[in-house]
Amino acid sequence: MPRRNRHDRGRPSNVGAAMGWARAESGADGEWLVRAVPGSQATKVYRCPGCDHEIQPGVPHVVAWPADETGSVEDRRHWHRACWQARERRRPTRRR
Q1: What does the pLDDT profile of the chain (96 residues) look like in tens digits?
Q2: How many angstroms separate the CA atoms of 71 and 61, rounded?
Q3: If you placed Cys at 22, which of 6, 35, 39, 51 could pair as Cys (CB 3.0 to 4.6 Å)?
Q4: Radius of gyration, alpha carbons of the chain
Q5: CA dihedral angle for residue 83, residue 85, residue 91, residue 93, rounded to 10 degrees
Q6: Is there a contact between 84 and 71 (Cβ–Cβ < 8 Å)?
Q7: What residues have CB less than 8 Å from 90, skipping those under 6 apart?
Q8: Do residues 38 and 32 lie in contact, with contact meaning Cβ atoms separated by under 8 Å?
Q9: Burial class of residue 55 in the structure, from the number of CB atoms within 10 Å of its CB (0-12 exposed, 13-18 middle, 19+ buried)
Q10: Is residue 39 helix, strand or coil?
């Protein structure tokens, strides 16, 4: 009998990558939905609100938006992972 690959863990392997599962996070700044973006899916340049530097294509990062406005694309922000984790120690910068 041939071996079965079990890497899917109960869901099709392409669903998580295509849809980008969001997880809920809470902090002093409120409730957030956060989605990890792998470098292979990062195809555009974004500006991180934490450090005001660009996130280049191919760089893994996170997308975060307020949990109470889950459908609002305008409220989504792309952050470097380290900047997102440090957001409570430093506030987002204003764009110059």
Answers
A1: 566 554 444 433 333 333 458 899 998 888 999 999 999 999 999 999 999 999 999 999 999 999 885 557 788 999 999 999 998 887 655 655
A2: 20
A3: 35
A4: 16
A5: 20
A6: no
A7: 50
A8: no
A9: buried
A10: helix
